[in-house]
UniProtKB/TrEMBL annotation:
It is a multi-pass membrane protein. This is Na+/H+ antiporter subunit D. Coiled coil: none annotated. It comes from Streptomyces sindenensis. Pfam families: Proton_antipo_M. It is found in: Cell membrane; Membrane. InterPro entries: CPA3_Na-H_Antiporter_D, NADH_UbQ_OxRdtase, ND/Mrp_TM. It comes from the Bacteria. Residues 452-462 have a biased composition (Acidic residues). Belongs to the CPA3 antiporters (TC 2.A.63) subunit D family.
């Protein structure tokens, strides 16, 4: 079974080579490779999760080099769950993107870049979840960075290039900080292996240990978009195509949360910075949701709710108890699915209504009842309405806070409740403006061109009817026949609104909703699994013994 551990990383990388080899010459085969590989990765992840639950952590030392010389990959309950949920979500997003047709390219383009970049992104995510040492974790981050920049700038429009540049600059800064933290850790302990660090960090002077902890937390907080290190996110994600924004918002920030949870539980069990983490969690929840309240563009609104709800997860990490870790893990799995779903629905809204600016939307509950239902379920889940999985995760975290009984814990419980109510207000506002009220006079008609890839869509030429970064660029150009898209891609060609949404897009969105509802239906086994995961994280011994063999 240990031999299966590297496959979630190796399969997407091998498929990337095949995808590059075939390019656009055999487009259908290229799409088949991507779907087949992600399906296989999802199945393998589920097998690894079940095996880790039955027999404990699984590890493999590549090249049979023992730590600290070799590369170690480890699959335990936590990494298995994260792999399974993330693989299922990335598969759904891939199907959505195929329905949108965003992998088609102009005839002059020699290479279909979406599939290779997407597969590399999946490999990078898998590498971070399975990494058993800091260096390999850094490599996973860099793989994600390379793929992320390509995906963020698809189409080469001005707003996307600027947003992608901001993302890369922030990511490179965090990478340099991460390298500094790795160098300091290695200089102090002589290893970068997780299991060995769990033993040797405890032997360091308290000042050195705290400095290393602070550096690692800063790096992962940037990746996770934790306030006050989240200013880059609302300006980077909304300009990307809907599938890219969905997988970034739903998944990439959770990679940072996973790293915080892994390092805090394994390296720093005393949780010396717990109070700081709880203060940051409160600030993220409150300031993020207040930012969402102030937004009128749906993509930016959801970006701020993302920042806000990261605070719930940091809340659990800061408390560092069995109940808190269990609640945080439930909430991470829930939020991956629900945030991805909401951004996929946003893409459908944009395709149906011509914009994501809420002041220009309306009447969709009557005009597109299925779309209304696709939005309503994950929106209520995000707000934490019982008995959905959002409520289960929040309840677990709030119960952990009450059980802790500390002053900061009670403040976080109150902040969690207030944030949940404000989240309900935010999604109710979206429902009222986009779905419930009558359509405003200026709403884009079916067949309106949304975007074209020439330089004219740059926001420097934006007029009063052009809202940069909302997907509303180009409204007012001559529309093609109603319901006929010039190209459903964002690759330098026009996109039009349509009253009939592609079935794969609807099916993929419904599948992510079903995953979120499955967390509700199977809440009892899920919470039992996360409770066992929390116990394993707190014990630390199973992980260390599996890797070091002692």
């Amino acid at each position: 079974m240990n031999a299966l551990v590297p496959l979630p990383v190796l399969l997407p990388l091998c498929a990337t080579g095949l995808s590059l080899a075939f390019g656009t010459r055999l487009g259908r085969f290229q799409r088949f490779i991507s779907v087949a590989v992600l399906t296989a990765v999802t199945a393998l992840s589920a097998i690894l999760m079940a095996a880790a639950d039955r027999q404990g952590p699984l590890s493999v030392h590549l090249g049979d080099f023992a730590p600290p010389l070799g590369i170690t990959l480890v699959a335990d309950r936590l990494s298995g769950l994260m792999l399974t949920v993330s693989s299922a979500v990335t598969l759904c997003v891939l199907v959505y993107s195929l329905g949108q047709g965003m992998t088609d390219r102009d005839k002059e383009t020699p290479l279909a870049v979406f599939h290779p970049a997407y597969l590399i992104l999946v490999a990078g995510v898998s590498c971070t979840f399975l990494a058993g040492d800091l260096v390999n974790l850094f490599v996973g981050f860099e793989i994600m960075l390379v793929a992320s920049f390509v995906l963020l700038t698809l189409g080469g429009t001005g707003p996307r290039m600027r947003a992608g540049s901001t993302y890369v600059i922030i990511s490179l800064f965090s990478s340099m900080l991460f390298l500094t933290a790795i160098a300091m850790t290695y200089a102090a302990t002589g290893t970068a292996n997780f299991a060995q660090l769990a033993v040797r960090l405890a032997e360091l002077p308290i000042g050195v240990r705290t400095l290393i902890q602070a550096l690692l937390l800063t790096v992962f907080a940037i990746k996770a978009a934790v306030f006050p290190l989240a200013a880059w996110l609302p300006d980077s994600y909304p300009t990307a195509p809907a599938p890219v924004t969905a997988v970034f918002a739903g998944l990439l920030t959770k990679v940072g949360v996973y790293c915080m949870l892994r390092t805090e539980s394994l390296f720093f069990p005393g949780n010396r910075l717990g109070v700081l983490l709880m203060a940051i969690a409160l600030a993220s929840m409150v300031i993020g949701i207040l930012g969402a309240v102030a937004q009128t563009d749906l993509k930016r609104l959801l970006s701020f709710t993302l920042i806000s709800h990261i605070g719930y997860m940091v809340f659990g990490i800061g408390l560092a108890t069995r109940e808190a870790y269990g609640g945080a893990i439930v909430y991470v799995a829930h939020h991956i699915t629900v945030q991805t779903t909401l951004f996929l629905v946003t893409g459908l809204i944009e395709r149906r209504g011509g914009t994501t600016e809420l002041t220009r939307l309306g009447g969709m509950a009557r005009a597109a009842p299925m779309l209304a239902a696709l939005f309503f379920v994950p929106a209520m889940n995000l707000a934490g309405i019982p008995p959905l999985s959002g409520f289960i995760g929040k309840l677990g975290l709030m119960r952990a806070g009450v059980a802790d009984g500390g002053g900061w814990a009670w403040v976080l419980v109150a902040g969690s409740a207030a944030t949940s109510l404000l989240t309900l207000y935010v999604v109710a506002k979206v429902w009222n403006l986009a779905f419930w009220r009558a359509a405003p006079p200026g709403q884009a008609a079916t067949g309106t061109v949304l975007e074209s890839g020439d330089d004219s869509d740059d926001d420097t030429d934006a007029g009063p009817d052009r809202i940069p970064g909302t997907g509303d660029e180009g409204v007012g150009t001559t529309p093609p026949p109603a319901g006929q898209a010039v190209a459903a891609t964002l690759h330098e060609r026009a996109v039009t609104t349509t009253s009939r949404l592609p079935h794969p897009m609807i099916a993929a969105t419904a599948a992510t909703i079903a995953i979120g509802l499955a967390f509700t239906v199977f809440a009892d086994p899920l919470t039992a699994f996360t409770d066992r995961t929390a116990v394993e994280l707190l014990q630390r011994a199973p992980y260390i013994q599996e890797v070091l063999g002692r």
